[in-house]
Design goal:
six-stranded mixed sheet; four-stranded antiparallel sheet; 7 helices; about 35% helix; binds coenzyme A
């Protein structure tokens, strides 16, 4: 049976000053960001929250402030899991990832995972034993950081589809050299037993990918997150003054 290819919308941005997107965040989100001591983290997290809400607002045709954002963990039920976007009568699957100054948000009508990583972040001793499957380890001539990051983001994007994240060992996801982006995965990761990954263009020194369940590569549309944030913030501001 031919599967229909899912469409994934990716909003890509450099982290912005949280003050620029404060209008798009809830009171408790603003309080949480203010408590973060690292300015880089504050910018990343605020940008990610604002992008999630902006992406959903575009799809639902409502103001960003009417979009509810939940983070229920599928493992323990706590408020620190995969994001879900809702209005009173619709919901959207989503994923967010940060690395350095890059923020990516992916939304789709099907469960989706996104991951971005700085290539330099994979250059630690022990990467192979944590991240690679037995076959990938056996295959390897020493891997360049770019290749490590390429494998890592595809694995993490797959693990984020259903919200299990790194509670499942990344070595259980075998990417190898699969040029198709299609990977067979444990059913504990994706019920269908298959996932498909596609690379996302990010600045030099980073790698990124999105993943959905099934054997069919998703269609990926990348949008300029910063421009969409500016437009959303201006619209909300106009509505509230
Ligand atoms: C979640 C995880 C995949 C994030 O990886 P990372 O490279 O550190 O961070 P990224 O920037 O790529 O992604 C962070 C975002 O992923 C989302 N996320 C959190 N848990 C997630 C999960 N299980 N699945 C999918 N997405 C998740 C969140 O939105 C988070 O952003 P936030 O902290 O601002 O809310 C990884 O840290 C992880 O799996 N941790 C442990 C998960 C676990 O054991 N859960 C059970 C706890 S009871």
């Amino acid at each position: 049976v031919d599967e229909v290819s899912a469409t994934v919308e990716v909003l890509r941005a450099v982290a912005v000053n949280p003050a620029l997107v404060a209008h798009l965040l809830t009171h408790s989100e603003r309080a949480r960001h203010s408590a973060l001591t690292d300015s880089g983290s504050r910018a990343r997290v605020a940008t990610g929250r604002a992008l999630l809400r902006t992406a959903a607002a575009r799809r639902f045709g409502v103001p960003p402030t009417e979009v509810a954002l939940d983070y229920r963990c599928v493992v323990c039920g706590g408020p620190h899991g995969k994001p879900e976007l809702r209005t009173t009568n619709a919901s959207l699957h989503a994923s967010v990832s940060y690395s350095g100054t890059v923020v990516l948000v992916a939304v789709a009508d099907v469960p989706v995972g996104v991951d971005v990583e700085q290539c330099s972040a994979t250059a630690f001793a022990g990467f192979e034993s944590i991240a690679l499957s037995a076959l990938e380890r056996a295959d390897s001539a020493p891997m360049a950081p770019e290749r490590r990051a390429e494998l890592w983001v595809r694995k993490e994007a797959v693990l984020k589809i259903s919200g299990v994240g790194l509670s499942v060992a990344p070595e259980t996801v075998h990417i190898g050299r699969a040029a198709s982006g299609r990977v067979q995965v444990p059913e504990s990761v994706v019920a269908a037993g298959w996932a498909s990954t596609v690379g996302v263009a990010v600045p030099a020194g980073y790698r990124a990918a999105v993943a959905v369940g099934g054997r069919q590569k998703p269609r990926v549309i990348v949008r300029d997150g910063r421009a969409l944030l500016a437009a959303a913030a201006a619209a909300v501001h106009t509505a509230t003054v």
